[in-house]
Design brief:
- The structure is a single chain.
- With 270 residues, the chain is an alpha/beta fold.
- It is 32% helix and 11% strand.
- The chain is built from nine helices and seven strands; from the N terminus they run ββααααβαβαβαβααβ.
- The protein has helices spanning 39-47, 51-65, 71-76, 99-107, 135-145, 165-174, 184-191, 239-249, 252-258, and strands at 7-10, 13-16, 128-131, 154-158, 177-182, 220-223, 266-269.
- The strands form two sheets. It has a five-stranded parallel beta sheet with strand order 4-5-3-6-7, with helices on both faces. The protein has a two-stranded antiparallel sheet with strand order 1-2.
- Strand 1 and strand 2 form a beta hairpin.
- The longest helix has 15 residues, at 51-65.
- The chain is globular and about 45 Å long.
- The N and C termini lie far apart (79 Å).
C-alpha cells in the first residue's frame, strides 16, 4: 500500500502533516524589529537644534525625570532660551578631536576673556566649566583641552573617580584654573554649601571648606551631549547625571546671570 505523502503514522493512528510549503498565516506576520537610533543620530539631533529647540529638549528631560515634582516646579526649572548659545551653524562633526576648536570658536561670543588660556587671578574660579556624563570621558576632554593649559592656568579635573572629595577641595582652593572639566555631581559638591549636600555625601569634617569652587568668574558652561555610553545614553538620558546637572544649572548664582547684560553666563551644548 502506497503512503500518502501528506500523512504520517503515529502509533496506531494517522494524523495529517502540514504541507511543507504552506504559506504563513496573514494573522501572524513576521514581527517588525524596532529601529534603534544610533549614537550618530543622537549627536546629529543635538547639533542641529537652535536655542529654542534646546530649551524645549531640556524641559522635556525635566518632565521625564521630575515625576515627583508639580507642574509649577517643572516650569521653574526651565532654562531661558536666550541663555543658550546657538551652535547649530558649526559644520564639523561633534567629535572629541574637534572639541578644542569648537570651544575656541564659540568662546569669542560667550564671554569677555581675552583667551581661553588665561585664568582668573583667584584660585577655584574658572571662566569655563565643561560637564560630561562619565569620569573617563572627562579624562579624555582634559587631554584634548591641555592645548589651553599654561603654567598659571590649569585645565582642572573635577570628577570623583580616584579623587576623594576632600582632596578635590584642597586642589581647587589652591589652583588657578581657566577650565574645569567634570561630572555634574562632583561639580555640585564642590560649589555647594555644606547644608545643601545630600545626606549620604555630607562629611562633617568638610563642611567648613565646601564651596571651594565659585562661579564669580564663570562665563560659560559647556554640556557634553556628544558622548554616549555603551547603552547609547547621554548626559540627559540618565537620572544620575540629569538631576545633578539640573540642580547645578538652576543654582541661584547661575540663573541670575543667564539673562544678565553685565556678566552673563552662556550655556553651550556640544
Amino acid at each position: 500500500m502506497k503512503r500518502n505523502p501528506e500523512f504520517t503514522e503515529y502509533g496506531s493512528g494517522s494524523e495529517e502533516r502540514p504541507a511543507k510549503h504552506r504559506k504563513r498565516s496573514a494573522r501572524n506576520p513576521t514581527p517588525i524589529q524596532p529601529v534603534v537610533e544610533s549614537a550618530e543620530d543622537v549627536k546629529m539631533a543635538i547639533s542641529t537644534m537652535d536655542s529654542r529647540l534646546l530649551a524645549d529638549y531640556v524641559a522635556q528631560r525635566n518632565r521625564r525625570f521630575g515625576e515627583h515634582l508639580s507642574s509649577v516646579e517643572i516650569e521653574n526649572m526651565r532654562i531661558p532660551e536666550n541663555a543658550i548659545l546657538d551652535t547649530s551653524g558649526w559644520d564639523q562633526e561633534r567629535l572629541l578631536q574637534f572639541f578644542p576648536s569648537f570651544l575656541e570658536h564659540f568662546a569669542q561670543s560667550s564671554g569677555a576673556s581675552a583667551s581661553l588660556a588665561v585664568a582668573p587671578e583667584k584660585p577655584g574660579t574658572p571662566h569655563t566649566l565643561v560637564l560630561t556624563a562619565a569620569a573617563l570621558r572627562a579624562v579624555e576632554l582634559v587631554r584634548v583641552l591641555k592645548l589651553f593649559q599654561r603654567k598659571d592656568a590649569t585645565v582642572a579635573k573635577l570628577f570623583a573617580k580616584h579623587i576623594k572629595l576632600g582632596e578635590a577641595i584642597n586642589f581647587v582652593r589652591k589652583t588657578r584654573m581657566n577650565i574645569g572639566v567634570g561630572t555634574p555631581s562632583r561639580v555640585v559638591d564642590l560649589i555647594a554649601d555644606g547644608c545643601l549636600l545630600e545626606p549620604p555625601l555630607l562629611d562633617p569634617t568638610l563642611t567648613s571648606t565646601l564651596g571651594a569652587l565659585t562661579c564669580n568668574s564663570l562665563e560659560r558652561v559647556v554640556i557634553d551631549c556628544s558622548f554616549l555610553d555603551q547603552k547609547k545614553r547621554g548626559i540627559f538620558d540618565m537620572r544620575e547625571t540629569q538631576q545633578p546637572l539640573m540642580r547645578l544649572m538652576n543654582r541661584t548664582e547661575l540663573k541670575e546671570r543667564y539673562t544678565s547684560s553685565r556678566a552673563p553666563i552662556k550655556l553651550i551644548f556640544y
